[in-house]
Specification:
With about 180 residues, the protein is mainly α. Helix content is about 60%, strand content about 5%. Strands 1-2 form a two-stranded antiparallel sheet.
Length: about 180
Protein backbone atom coordinates (compact mmCIF):
# COMPACT_ATOMS: atom_id res chain seq x y z
CA UNK A 1 0.00 0.00 0.00
CA UNK A 2 1.36 3.44 -0.89
CA UNK A 3 2.46 5.81 1.90
CA UNK A 4 -0.32 8.33 1.15
CA UNK A 5 -2.92 5.55 1.31
CA UNK A 6 -1.50 4.34 4.62
CA UNK A 7 -1.56 7.87 6.00
CA UNK A 8 -5.01 8.79 4.61
CA UNK A 9 -6.83 5.50 3.98
CA UNK A 10 -10.15 7.28 3.39
CA UNK A 11 -8.59 10.31 1.70
CA UNK A 12 -8.44 13.86 3.02
CA UNK A 13 -11.41 15.69 4.49
CA UNK A 14 -13.05 17.85 1.85
CA UNK A 15 -15.56 20.39 3.10
CA UNK A 16 -18.60 20.65 0.85
CA UNK A 17 -19.51 24.03 -0.63
CA UNK A 18 -22.91 23.77 1.07
CA UNK A 19 -23.96 21.68 4.07
CA UNK A 20 -27.31 19.96 3.69
CA UNK A 21 -29.38 18.84 6.67
CA UNK A 22 -28.56 15.22 5.77
CA UNK A 23 -24.83 16.01 5.93
CA UNK A 24 -25.17 17.37 9.46
CA UNK A 25 -27.33 14.42 10.53
CA UNK A 26 -24.72 11.99 9.17
CA UNK A 27 -21.88 13.84 10.92
CA UNK A 28 -23.67 13.70 14.26
CA UNK A 29 -24.50 10.01 13.78
CA UNK A 30 -20.86 9.23 12.99
CA UNK A 31 -19.64 11.14 16.05
CA UNK A 32 -22.25 9.46 18.25
CA UNK A 33 -21.41 5.93 17.03
CA UNK A 34 -17.62 6.29 17.09
CA UNK A 35 -16.84 5.01 20.62
CA UNK A 36 -18.76 1.76 20.10
CA UNK A 37 -17.15 1.21 16.70
CA UNK A 38 -13.71 1.92 18.13
CA UNK A 39 -14.28 -0.43 21.08
CA UNK A 40 -15.35 -3.20 18.69
CA UNK A 41 -12.41 -2.57 16.34
CA UNK A 42 -9.77 -2.85 19.10
CA UNK A 43 -11.49 -5.46 21.30
CA UNK A 44 -9.53 -8.44 20.00
CA UNK A 45 -6.09 -6.78 19.96
CA UNK A 46 -3.33 -7.93 22.30
CA UNK A 47 -1.00 -5.54 24.11
CA UNK A 48 1.73 -6.16 21.53
CA UNK A 49 -0.73 -5.51 18.70
CA UNK A 50 -1.79 -2.25 20.39
CA UNK A 51 1.87 -1.25 20.34
CA UNK A 52 2.20 -1.85 16.58
CA UNK A 53 2.51 1.21 14.33
CA UNK A 54 -0.21 1.45 11.70
CA UNK A 55 2.27 2.80 9.11
CA UNK A 56 6.01 3.52 8.95
CA UNK A 57 6.62 6.73 10.90
CA UNK A 58 3.09 6.63 12.32
CA UNK A 59 1.69 6.07 15.76
CA UNK A 60 0.90 2.80 17.46
CA UNK A 61 -2.71 1.70 17.71
CA UNK A 62 -2.52 2.64 21.41
CA UNK A 63 -1.38 6.16 20.51
CA UNK A 64 -4.16 6.47 17.92
CA UNK A 65 -6.83 5.55 20.48
CA UNK A 66 -5.36 7.87 23.11
CA UNK A 67 -5.00 10.63 20.48
CA UNK A 68 -8.70 10.36 19.66
CA UNK A 69 -9.54 11.11 23.30
CA UNK A 70 -7.19 14.13 23.26
CA UNK A 71 -8.44 15.42 19.93
CA UNK A 72 -12.13 14.94 20.61
CA UNK A 73 -11.94 16.56 24.05
CA UNK A 74 -10.48 19.61 22.32
CA UNK A 75 -13.19 19.49 19.64
CA UNK A 76 -15.99 19.30 22.20
CA UNK A 77 -14.62 22.34 24.05
CA UNK A 78 -14.20 24.22 20.75
CA UNK A 79 -17.81 23.50 19.84
CA UNK A 80 -19.10 24.62 23.23
CA UNK A 81 -17.05 27.81 22.99
CA UNK A 82 -18.42 28.54 19.53
CA UNK A 83 -22.00 28.07 20.75
CA UNK A 84 -21.54 30.28 23.81
CA UNK A 85 -19.05 32.94 22.63
CA UNK A 86 -18.76 35.15 19.58
CA UNK A 87 -16.12 33.64 17.27
CA UNK A 88 -13.68 32.62 20.00
CA UNK A 89 -10.05 31.97 19.14
CA UNK A 90 -9.32 28.36 20.03
CA UNK A 91 -6.10 27.06 21.47
CA UNK A 92 -4.34 24.63 19.13
CA UNK A 93 -2.37 21.82 20.74
CA UNK A 94 0.73 19.92 19.57
CA UNK A 95 -0.92 16.54 18.92
CA UNK A 96 2.32 14.80 17.90
CA UNK A 97 3.95 15.83 21.18
CA UNK A 98 0.89 14.83 23.19
CA UNK A 99 1.02 11.36 21.56
CA UNK A 100 4.56 10.93 22.90
CA UNK A 101 3.63 11.72 26.51
CA UNK A 102 3.25 8.80 28.92
CA UNK A 103 -0.55 8.85 28.86
CA UNK A 104 -0.56 8.78 25.06
CA UNK A 105 2.17 6.23 24.58
CA UNK A 106 1.67 3.69 27.35
CA UNK A 107 -1.71 4.12 29.04
CA UNK A 108 -4.10 1.20 28.62
CA UNK A 109 -6.65 2.19 25.99
CA UNK A 110 -9.65 1.46 28.20
CA UNK A 111 -9.24 4.83 29.92
CA UNK A 112 -9.44 6.65 26.58
CA UNK A 113 -12.35 4.54 25.36
CA UNK A 114 -14.28 5.38 28.53
CA UNK A 115 -13.48 9.08 28.01
CA UNK A 116 -14.70 8.81 24.41
CA UNK A 117 -17.91 7.05 25.45
CA UNK A 118 -18.90 9.78 27.90
CA UNK A 119 -17.56 12.60 25.76
CA UNK A 120 -19.29 11.50 22.56
CA UNK A 121 -22.57 11.04 24.42
CA UNK A 122 -22.37 14.64 25.63
CA UNK A 123 -21.08 15.89 22.26
CA UNK A 124 -23.95 14.24 20.39
CA UNK A 125 -26.49 15.75 22.80
CA UNK A 126 -24.95 19.19 22.24
CA UNK A 127 -24.90 18.81 18.45
CA UNK A 128 -28.45 17.48 18.29
CA UNK A 129 -29.65 20.46 20.33
CA UNK A 130 -28.32 23.06 17.89
CA UNK A 131 -30.79 25.08 15.89
CA UNK A 132 -30.12 25.40 12.16
CA UNK A 133 -28.65 28.92 12.48
CA UNK A 134 -26.30 27.81 15.26
CA UNK A 135 -24.46 25.50 12.84
CA UNK A 136 -23.01 28.62 11.19
CA UNK A 137 -21.44 29.79 14.46
CA UNK A 138 -17.68 29.53 14.28
CA UNK A 139 -14.38 29.65 16.07
CA UNK A 140 -11.12 31.09 14.82
CA UNK A 141 -8.31 28.56 14.33
CA UNK A 142 -4.98 30.45 14.52
CA UNK A 143 -2.93 27.68 12.87
CA UNK A 144 -5.32 27.60 9.90
CA UNK A 145 -5.66 31.38 9.89
CA UNK A 146 -9.43 31.32 9.41
CA UNK A 147 -12.82 30.84 11.00
CA UNK A 148 -14.29 27.34 11.05
CA UNK A 149 -18.04 26.88 11.30
CA UNK A 150 -19.57 24.24 13.52
CA UNK A 151 -20.91 22.43 10.46
CA UNK A 152 -17.41 22.26 8.96
CA UNK A 153 -15.90 21.23 12.28
CA UNK A 154 -18.50 18.48 12.80
CA UNK A 155 -17.78 17.21 9.28
CA UNK A 156 -14.07 17.27 9.94
CA UNK A 157 -14.43 15.35 13.19
CA UNK A 158 -16.79 12.79 11.65
CA UNK A 159 -14.08 12.31 9.02
CA UNK A 160 -11.49 12.10 11.85
CA UNK A 161 -13.44 9.27 13.48
CA UNK A 162 -13.58 7.28 10.25
CA UNK A 163 -9.96 8.16 9.40
CA UNK A 164 -8.58 6.59 12.57
CA UNK A 165 -10.95 3.62 12.47
CA UNK A 166 -9.60 2.97 8.97
CA UNK A 167 -6.00 3.13 10.23
CA UNK A 168 -6.71 0.37 12.72
CA UNK A 169 -8.91 -1.71 10.40
CA UNK A 170 -6.40 -1.55 7.54
CA UNK A 171 -3.56 -2.56 9.90
CA UNK A 172 -5.61 -5.51 11.11
CA UNK A 173 -6.17 -6.60 7.49
CA UNK A 174 -2.48 -6.21 6.51
CA UNK A 175 -1.35 -8.14 9.59
CA UNK A 176 -4.10 -10.82 9.28
CA UNK A 177 -5.44 -9.99 12.75
CA UNK A 178 -9.08 -10.31 11.72
Amino acid sequence: MQTENLRYPIGHFVAPAHYATDDITNYVSTIEAFPAKLRKTVASLSESQLDTVYRPGGWTVRQVVNHCADSHMNAFIRHKLAVTSHEPTINPYPEALWAELADGKSLPIEASIKILEGLHLRWAVLLKSLQQEQWQRSFYHPEKGRKISLEESAGSYAWHCNHHLAHITELKKRMNWL
